[in-house]
Amino acid sequence: MPTAFAGNDQVLCHGDSTFLNATGGLIYQWNNGVNNNQYFSPQSTTTYTVTVTDNNGCIDTDDVVISVNSIPSTPSIVQIGNDLVSSSISGNQWYLNNDIIQGETDQTYTPVQNGDYFVIINQNGCFSDTSNLLTVTWVGISDLTNNLRLKIYPNPVKNNISIISYDNNIKKVELIDILGNVLLVYKTHLDIQKTVNINIDEVPNGMYFIRLNTTDEIVIQKIIKE
Fold first, then answer.
1. Is residue 43 scored above 90 in pLDDT?
2. CB-based burial of residue 60 (10 Å sphere; 0-12 exposed, 13-18 middle, 19+ buried)?
3. Beta carbons within 10 angstroms of residue 84's beta carbon
4. Burial class (CB in 10 A: 0-12, 13-18, 19+), 18
5. Please, what is the average pLDDT of the chain?
6. Which of 10, 39, 57, 177 is 20 to 30 A (C-alpha) from 112?
7. All residues at 6 or more sequence positions from 109 whose CB lies less than 8 Å from its CB, including other chains
8. 224 beta partners
9. CATH number of this structure's domain 142-225
10. What share of the chain has pLDDT > 70, as a percent?
11. Which pLDDT score is estimated for 210?
């Protein structure tokens, strides 16, 4: 009487190939159209049964389970303030300039240096395609929090927003949405200009960012349009 052994259970990602190698006899007959020691690509989690026959014509059977995990959907990343946010709640791995950022697996990542960032999702050992690339250039740029030299008001704002620079001249003001799109650009045409008023009445309600260029610095401030 042969002792059939179908092999150890396997876990694959969708699209991977594998083979089954049964032992314990002379002839091996698999169900599901599988041939012994020949590669194939399982499409879903399946139990495969092999019938083993020895040289006396005696038979035995054994099973093996191949689990097939799905490939995660390709994520996207956006800039929100000074943070990068992935569309995936879990499984994130952040990269900078094609190098893995060790230990950075949360949905949100705060860059500590300028460069090209992307994320890859790892779920059950299966990896997504690479997300879109975001180039970070703002590390080292100031935020308006506790900045007494600049003022943006009112915040929240309904239609008109005022910007005052107490020290440096204002060169350019940009209104940016949470996806990083520049919606409005105001460039000053005077050598000395410390106050700017911008109407955003036609902008939909939501969260935005003001990026302010002065003669000395670049600052970013979150605003709420009501």
1. yes
2. middle
3. 22
4. middle
5. 87
6. 177
7. 83, 84, 85, 86, 92, 94, 101, 117, 119
8. 207
9. 2.60.40.3080
10. 92
11. 85
Each residue's pLDDT tens digit, 92-146: 999 999 999 999 999 999 988 888 999 999 999 999 999 999 988 767 655 555 5
Residue with tokens 């876990």: 11
| Residue 83, CB-side half-sphere exposure with 13 Å CA sphere | 10
**Domain residue limits, the chain:** 10-69, 77-136, 142-225
Q: Which of 68, 61, 62, 73 is nearest to 18 (CA)?
A: 68
Is the pLDDT at 177 greater than 90? The verdict is: no
Full-model pTM: 0.59
